[in-house]
Amino acid sequence: MSFKTAAYIRLSREDGDKAESDSVKNQRELLHEFIRRQKDLRLIDTYIDDGWSGTDFKRPSFCRMIRDIEEGKIDCVIVKDLSRFGRDYLETGTYLERYFPEWKVRFISIVDGIDSEKNQYDLMMPIKNLLNEQYARDISKKVHAAVRTKQEAGKFIGAFASYGYKKSSEDKNKLIIDTYAAEVVRRIFKMYGEGYGKNGIARWLNDRQILSPSEYKRENGERYRNGNSIKTGSYWTYSTIHKILQNEIYIGNMVQGKKYQEMRGRQRVRKKEEWIVVEGTQEPIIDMETWERTQRILNTKTHRMGTRGEKNLFAGMIKCQKCGHMLVKKGEGEKMRYCCGTYIRMGRMYCTPHTVRYAELKDIISHDLEKFFPDILDEWNRQKEHILKEKEKKKEHEKKKLETEYKRVRQFERAVYEDFKEGILSKEEWLSYRESYQKKEKKLEEQILYMEKEQEEQGRKTELLSDMREFKAEEWMKKTILLEMIEEIKVGENEIEIVYRF
């Protein structure tokens, strides 16, 4: 009798398979040579899962082999040893003791001396399976510990950088700005701040054929796969824009550890307070002022844009004077108005409409700004100048600390050189110390340079405040400005109360 044989090979870095004897090449040679020596074995196909954990039985080639068994193409499976077949005690036992006998499949493990055709499985097989699973668990814990240590140090460990960044060619654990994608990110934040909704921004980007993050990665030769992508093509969506606007990475913070992998391939999501956030790990794309303003808008929950292009300037600011809930935008264009959300959802028994036309509200605030503009602007300037000066002092203090640390490292570097010259340190020791200090110097130089750029930006903002006196009131009718100037708008039945931040 001749057995239609499948040679199964598995290799995984995750479970510690680093020995040369376990390489795909050596496993294949061992299995093929064994099959050639057996007169009753006929090789049908070789199934290889390279880079797959033994605790995960949803491996692509393994699943293909199971399909071929059920289609009658295969009736014998051969592996180098039990750990190559799997490291999950229960599932491995289920396949060997129940599934294969039911489908009349012969199983051979060369190193373990197992051949189900010649003898029954001995008592040691379940113990070997259990040891294989325990080994995988132990390795998994060590891998997770090493990964978390890197994350806590602010090192990037992901396979793909967030849109707007790319991995440094010199250090794969460091992110640097991708100039093109970063400009798109800045455009998204700018448009959202001006009153565009997330769907509106997505449409704007799609209309201009700007590649979505997943398509952009693939266009740049990365083997990126997004399981949530639309099958007919990948486009900008509400969800993509929302994620970008909430991602702290764009202010220079590294956010990792949102998910973790359990044994048997299960993935879990961690609570936000358990995420690993390390500040200032890479150059920011978005300044802190833009970021804080964006988060303020996101938290209003009602930031939208009309389908005809009329921006909803007052979203998140306008409330019902009676019930305190947000007013909801109704209609478009000239008919656009705000009504009490409670009234719309619950009816007149709970509140009244408190309706105000969008155009009317815009005229009232524009009139206010024209009337009180000089006084408001002076106060706004004073507050902004104070904030900027405080920030400038803080940055100057941080910069001086970095410069002091830089001088200290340089002194250490000179000191170890003197110790080398006097024979206290060997050449190898001196070179090792020098390399360490030079790395620290480079990092400090980068941080000092970044601080200097921030100080220049603060200087430009201070200059901008004095230029603002030239602006006209209507030029202030922008979402970004209104958020800075207006605390809230309360609408009653016959009155509108505007609470300015001053």
Pairing-aware structural class of the strands and helices?
alpha/beta
Q: Percent range for helical residues?
A: 40-55%
Radius of gyration: 32 Å
**Uncertain spans, ≥5 residues at pLDDT below 50?**
15-21, 224-233, 301-310, 467-471
Number of strands: 17
Strand portion = 5-15%
Main-sheet strand order equals: 2-1-3-4-5
Give an account of the 3D structure.
This protein has 502 residues and is α/β, with parallel strands linked by helices. 48% of the residues lie in helices and 14% in strands. The chain has 14 helices and 17 strands. The protein has helices at residues 24-37, 60-70, 82-85, 89-102, 124-152, 179-193, 198-207, 213-219, 238-246, 288-298, 341-346, 358-421, 427-467, 479-485, and strands at residues 3-11, 41-50, 76-79, 106-109, 114-115, 165-167, 175-177, 254-256, 259-261, 267-269, 276-278, 318-320, 327-330, 337-340, 356-357, 486-491, 496-500. The strands form six sheets. It has a five-stranded mixed beta sheet with strand order 2-1-3-4-5, with helices on both faces. A three-stranded mixed beta sheet has the order 12-16-17. A three-stranded antiparallel beta sheet has the order 13-14-15. A hairpin with a 4-residue loop joins β4 (106-109) and β5. It is flat, with a radius of gyration of 32 Å. The chain starts with a strand and ends with a strand. The model is unreliable at 15-21, 224-233, 301-310 and 467-471 (pLDDT under 50).
